[in-house]
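Duplicate of earlier report; DNA-binding protein input re-posted below.
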Amino acid sequence: MNLSPKTIIFTIFAIFIIGMALLAAHTQEKADNEKCRYTKTDYGYLMVLREGDDVLANLENLAKEKQIPSANFTGIGFASDATFGFYDFNAKKFNPKTFNKVEMGSLTGSIAWKEEKPSIHVHGVATDDKFDAYGGHILALKVGTGSMEIYITIHNEKLERKLEQPLGANVLQLNCNQ
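Output:
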């Protein structure tokens, strides 16, 4: 095959441009993955999560990393997937329902511990593009387009959750002897 010098130079330039674009995309992806997700405040932490982040996993990781004894939190933001669960006391399980592309108008919950692992309990209210609202216990939550802001207030006492019968649910335990 006989290629002209112009064709060779153009091909080399095109390969260079494509390589640079791939490098830039990889660098941006790496920067997105390394973005700061929380900062210390006077009362605890401010967490800002971005598209694709798993809200419950990030809260659990923060509790483990910082050994948060207990906390409560509130938040707002966009969700790509919000799975709510309504607890069936007879069956002793959650009946889940997932909503996509919703705005979390309210997010509230607590951080405690169960068997040496963080136990995240969260409820919320989500609205869709028709302004219909859905709410209750949140089983799973992923950040959608935009971000989610969560304000975490730390408490000094370590709180535990334990499975209580006949309820069959994890209940926050109080230390009333203080």
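The two ends are 87 Å apart (CA to CA).

Merging into the original ticket.
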